[in-house]
Amino acid sequence: MILSRRRFLTGSAAFVGTAFAGNAWSNSRRPELPIPTLIDGTNEAPVHLQLREGLWSFKPGIMTPTLGINQDYLGPTIRARKNRELNLNYHNTLNEGVAVHGHGFHVPGEVDGGPQLEIAPGDRWSPKLSIVQPSATCWYHSHTHGKSGEQTYRGLAGMILIDDDETDAMDLPRRYGIDDIPIVIQDRTFDEQGRLVYSLMDADEDGWYGDTVVINGAIAPVAKVPAGRVRLRLLNGANARFYIVAFADNRVFHKIATDGGLLEAPVLMTTMEMSPGERCEIIVDLSDGKSADLFTLFEDDVDEAEEGIVSGMLGVLGSSEVAAEMPSLTLEVDTSLVPNLVPLPEKLVNIIRPKASDVVRVREFELTMEHGGGASGHHGHAAMDMAINGASMDMNVINERVNLGEWERWRIRSDMGAHPFHAHGCSFLIDQMEGATAPEDQRGWKDTVVLDDDDWSEIVVRFDHVATDQFPYMYHCHILEHEDRGMMGQFTVT
Ligand code: C2O
Ligand code: CU
Ligand code: CU
Fold first, then answer.
1. 476 Cα–ligand 3 center, Å
2. How many Å lie between the centroid of ligand 3 and the Cα of residue 35?
């Protein structure tokens, strides 16, 4: 089946307003939410990041071979700051090459970490990043040519938080790990020995789905939080899965930020979709003292369940597998923690959209998947050609040349299936999403936009940093198996 998300969007009203069964799960045997170590990258001292092998316990009593950065699985959270320099120092101790990309950064191509910047086994790479963009939740992950999917799946990913003065002045919750919590959502499949199962060759058209949701590397963890406002920085760090995020009691939350920074104003929501690569920040109010169960539903399951006209989310949950049995994450109130009770500001930031006359050029991108000749049956997918504008990723080809500092309109279309389209080196604004005006919660700065089959999404974008022929930027589908199979192109900015 090829995921099409239109059904979720049109059918979502059916389950909004239906409550879950509630807290029927026992929290006692659930793991605590792992909070990655926070490294301060705001004082120009080099941040040492060792890419290494690890052993990580996803399941009680079982050690799973993994990859990680300074730790066994995933990497530390790095704090950066606008108008400061972030100095990274990667050391690749693996026996394979790795390129590490800073996703969401407005930095030149030579420090962007695309596949041209692969770090050989034993080598180091020390990019200096001048941070000139506003506060945002970014991330870093493997971008190795043909291996982004596998290396990210095994653990090569982490978060980078950018702060700035404007946001600091807002009294948003910002105590890391207490009321400002990084949440990396992924799904993984384990074999009988507890090893991670991954195969690019065996992935079907939708990409590689895991059957078990892991949050910061833990299955159905519990986080102790203060009885006040809590900020969750959500990252869909899955290879291919689209999630629908909602609380069991249909609790409302405010979305305050998209990929590239704060929204103009908080948007009240009860369910939210997240595609691979996307981040968002939400504020949830726990001042009622009750714990909150967060669900990350598989959008494809919701699609299937809706086909059978299942009433409400409970039916959806009943039809799913492991991921459905327990909340993905429970926020449990701990009254010994000092709460943040400051009301949310009504206004966050100003977003200045370019005027139509500022846009000097239109570019079109079409994402295609086609079965190659000869392949048939379940394992014929490897022959599928994935391309953008008819071209599969070729390290020796520059697909587009963009002028520095000029606004452009990019019209992006999917020929088949839903895809999250991502561009390096920028944040953009979505004008049209799937043929309609972008919803309110998508009107912030973004670097990933979803397209469904046979729909156009349109963005306006400007690049303010240079990317040369030697170190170009990439645009691609963020389903990592699509990317690894060539749904990616290179572009320069000069
Ligand atoms: Cu998150 Cu080109 O990647
Ligand atoms: Cu990126
Ligand atoms: Cu795709």
1. 8
2. 30
The residue nearest atom 1 of ligand 1, judged by CA position, is: 103
Residues with beta carbon inside 6 Å of ligand 1? 101, 103, 141, 143, 277, 422, 424, 474, 476, 478
Other CB atoms within a 10 A radius of the CB of residue 484 amount to 26
Ligand 1 centroid vs 379 CA: distance in angstroms? 27
Measured from the Cα of 474, ligand 1's closest atom is 2
Decide if 86 contacts 77 (C-beta within 8 A).
no
Q: Which pair of tokens denotes residue 333?
A: 């109130």
**Nearest ligand, CA 421:** 3
The CA-to-CA distance between both ends of the chain, in Å, stands at: 41
Q: Which domains does the chain have, with CATH numbers?
A: 5-23+170-333 (2.60.40.420), 38-167 (2.60.40.420), 356-493 (2.60.40.420)
- The answer to whether the predicted template modeling score (pTM) of the entire model surpasses 0.70 is yes
What is the token pair recorded at 61? 């009593």
Q: How far is CA 161 from CA 64, 121, 185, 360, 385, in A?
A: 28, 28, 16, 32, 36
- How do residues 9-42 score in pLDDT, each as one tens digit? 443 433 433 444 444 556 668 999 999 999 999 9
Provide the 3-class DSSP secondary structure of residue 244.
strand
CA of 475 from ligand 1 middle (Å) equals 8
Each residue's pLDDT tens digit, 175-227? 999 999 999 999 999 999 999 999 999 998 999 999 999 999 999 999 999 99
